[in-house]
């Protein structure tokens, strides 16, 4: 029995990213157009060429769709961003306060589960912090209907700006003149997790909305 | 399109391509038409971003076609130019003609 060659398929990650960034109304048509051109190109110039063409087109499409998001609905996207920024700014110390309050009520120093409390103190704050960022990402994406990913990524970049400024000051000076910043590594790591949490929040809302729209279309 | 009714350069090109393609205007054909006639390489994303903007200004309308296997079971979105879109194209063409009229430099190079 001879095996039939499987039909060429476009790069999955690129297609997934286009689906994530394109507006919901356009995602299906854009992906369909890209698939049609991909099949045509694969039969004419080979799969490798078609795949690199698809990746390049996907990157350009994402850039255009991101720009269009602000062009089509600038006030509402800006409101979502501002609200997300204020939420993340004013709730910045909340995870630490929450864990400390929890530890105080449980009186860990007199407990037999001391190690569990130490673990909670060390890892609890980052876990609550990333959950908080995830929720903020969800709120922003819910408000920026149809432009979820652009709003979530823009908020992430906005939150990253002060950190980038801090790093610029730190590495912009000569090694001996650098200010002493205690726990710089863990601080940057926790900030990076927060930024990723916001983006994941956007992905969750976007995917949930796409799935719900597909279910409605199917029925 | 600006407040005075003129189209942007790429909006103008996309509308003309949609008009030329008549009932066969969707992302792939519009992209190929622009490339064939202007030599300008454009991305699908740029075309959709422009069409989205034109649709929000009521210059084009779209409808979904049937899904096809070569498109991974996805539908085509066909576009057509509205009466308002046709008048925007005419308006822009008139403005461009008026600007180029009597230019000796253009006459000799065309």
Summarize this entry quickly.
The complex is a heterodimer of chains A (219) and B (110). Chain A is mainly alpha-helical and 219 residues long.
Structure characterization notes:
The complex is a heterodimer of chains A (about 220) and B (about 110). Chain A has helices at about 10-20, 25-45, 45-70, 75-90, 95-105, 115-145, 150-170, 185-219. Helix content of chain A is about 80%, strand content about 0%. By secondary structure, chain A is mainly alpha-helical. Chain A is built from 8 helices and no strands. Chain A folds into 2 domains: about 1-70, no CATH class; about 75-219, no CATH class. Chain A starts with 11 loop residues before the first helix and ends with a helix. Chain B has about 110 residues and is of the alpha+beta class. Chain B has a single domain, classed as Arc Repressor Mutant, subunit A (Orthogonal Bundle), CATH 1.10.10. Helix content of chain B is about 55%, strand content about 15%. Chain B is built from 5 helices and 2 strands, in the order H-H-H-E-E-H-H. A two-stranded antiparallel sheet of chain B has the order 1-2. In chain B, a hairpin with a 5-residue loop joins strand 1 and strand 2. The radius of gyration of chain B is 16 Å and the shape is globular. Chain B starts with 8 loop residues before the first helix and ends with a helix. The model of chain B has no long low-confidence stretch (mean pLDDT about 85). The chains are: A mainly alpha (about 220), B alpha+beta (about 110). The interface of A and B includes residues 23, 35, 36 and 39 of A.
């Amino acid at each position: 029995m001879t095996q039939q060659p499987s039909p060429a398929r476009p790069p999955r990650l690129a297609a997934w990213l286009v689906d994530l960034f394109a507006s919901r109304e356009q995602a299906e048509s854009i992906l369909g157009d890209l698939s049609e051109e991909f099949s045509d190109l694969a039969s004419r110039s080979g799969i490798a060429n078609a795949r690199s063409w698809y990746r390049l087109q996907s990157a350009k499409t994402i850039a255009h769709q991101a720009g269009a998001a602000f062009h089509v609905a600038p006030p509402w996207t800006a409101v979502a961003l501002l609200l997300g920024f204020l939420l993340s700014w004013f709730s910045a110390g909340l995870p630490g306060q929450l864990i400390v309050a929890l530890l105080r009520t449980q009186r860990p120093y007199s407990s037999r589960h001391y190690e569990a409390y130490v673990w909670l103190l060390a890892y609890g704050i980052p876990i609550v912090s990333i959950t908080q960022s995830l929720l903020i990402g969800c709120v922003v994406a819910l408000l920026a209907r149809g432009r979820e990913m652009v709003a979530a990524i823009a908020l992430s970049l906005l939150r990253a700006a002060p950190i980038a400024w801090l790093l610029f000051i730190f590495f912009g000076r000569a090694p001996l003149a650098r200010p002493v910043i205690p726990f710089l590594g863990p601080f940057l790591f926790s900030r990076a997790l927060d930024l990723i949490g916001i983006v994941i929040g956007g992905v969750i809302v976007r995917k949930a909305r796409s799935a719900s729209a597909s279910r409605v279309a199917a029925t | 399109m600006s407040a005075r009714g003129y189209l942007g350069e790429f909006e103008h090109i996309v509308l003309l391509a949609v008009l030329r393609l008549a009932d066969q205007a969707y992302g792939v054909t519009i992209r190929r038409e622009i490339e064939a006639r202007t030599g300008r390489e454009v991305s699908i994303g740029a075309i959709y971003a422009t069409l989205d903007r034109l649709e929000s200004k009521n210059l084009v309308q779209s409808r979904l076609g049937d899904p096809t296997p070569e498109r991974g079971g996805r539908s085509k979105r066909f576009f057509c130019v509205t009466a308002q879109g046709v008048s925007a194209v005419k308006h822009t063409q008139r403005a461009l003609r008026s600007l180029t009229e009597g230019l000796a430099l253009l006459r000799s190079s065309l």
